TrEMBL record:
It catalyses: Hydrolyzes single-stranded DNA or mismatched double-stranded DNA and polynucleotides, releasing free uracil. InterPro entries: UDG_fam1, Ura-DNA_Glyclase_AS, Uracil-DNA_glycosylase-like, Uracil-DNA_glycosylase-like_sf. This is Uracil-DNA glycosylase. Pfam families: UDG (PF03167). The active site is at D66 (proton acceptor). Residues 51-211 form the Uracil-DNA glycosylase-like domain. Its main location: cytoplasm. Belongs to the uracil-DNA glycosylase (UDG) superfamily. UNG family. PANTHER family: URACIL-DNA GLYCOSYLASE. Its EC number is 3.2.2.27. The gene is ung. It comes from Marinobacterium sediminicola.
Length: 234
């Protein structure tokens, strides 16, 4: 495991790979592969969120919990799926809120690379999962690594918006300094909870308004309808 394609993060995070917890995680993943278990996403995408969003460009952080565990879905960005894959229910609700909040009509894909390339860090707490077995890799070490990522953004970046959807993300983001950053909380966009306050939260417009107030560029939340260029650049 290495961060060769994420140079802005590498000086800070590469030392983590020598820590006992990451060595243990590496052995666990090797054992899973040796047992012929299918792991998502592909190892080339484990650190894709860091590769797509350099540390010095982070404007917004969205925290997810666990990669999608069905074939062809996960590619290293939370809530995002590969082109041509059915849009997951939570992302459907995210699109509903985008439309209600900013008037952005939903696109017919769930590929969020456009957000990541603008500085929206789409970070799952756990970066791998076993096929068909949600949360199978929780408690194996990824959480400590992604806590370090959040700590880095909190300490090294200025004026970042953290979108914490659901109790899991809110607990993980408890260390964020809300005097320097904007922390917005809402229920998870899952169909089980979206109606409890995610729908109607207005987080996308609030994020952009605050970024502008801090002298930063707002995020273009409108995803491209034509994915040809996005796929070429990913």
């Amino acid at each position: 495991m290495a961060l060769d394609n994420a140079p802005s993060w590498q000086p800070w995070l590469q030392p983590e790979f020598d820590q006992p917890y990451m060595q243990s995680l590496k052995r666990f993943l090797q054992a899973e592969k040796a047992a012929n278990k299918v792991i998502y996403p592909h190892s080339s995408h484990w650190f894709h969120a860091l590769e797509a969003t350099p540390l010095d460009r982070v404007r917004v952080v969205i925290l997810g919990q666990d990669p999608y565990h069905q074939p062809g879905q996960a590619h290293g960005l939370c809530f995002s799926v590969k082109p041509g894959v059915r849009i997951p229910p939570s992302l459907v609700n995210i699109y509903k809120e985008l439309q209600a909040d900013l008037g952005i009509a939903p696109v017919d894909h769930g590929y969020l690379e456009h957000w990541a390339r603008q500085g929206v860090l789409l970070l799952n707490a756990v970066l791998t999962v076993e096929q068909g077995n949600a949360n199978a890799h929780q408690g194996k070490g990824w959480e400590q690594f992604t806590d370090r990522i959040i700590q880095l953004v909190n300490e090294q970046c200025e004026h970042v918006v953290f979108l914490l959807w659901g109790s899991y993300a809110q607990k993980k983001g408890a260390c964020i300094d809300d005097r320097r950053h904007l922390v917005l909380k809402a229920p998870h966009p899952s169909p089980l909870s979206a109606h409890r306050g995610f729908l109607g939260c207005g987080h996308f417009s609030k994020a952009n308004q605050w970024l502008v107030e801090q002298g930063r560029e707002p995020v273009d939340w409108q995803l491209p309808v034509d994915l040809i260029e996005e796929k070429v650049n990913s």
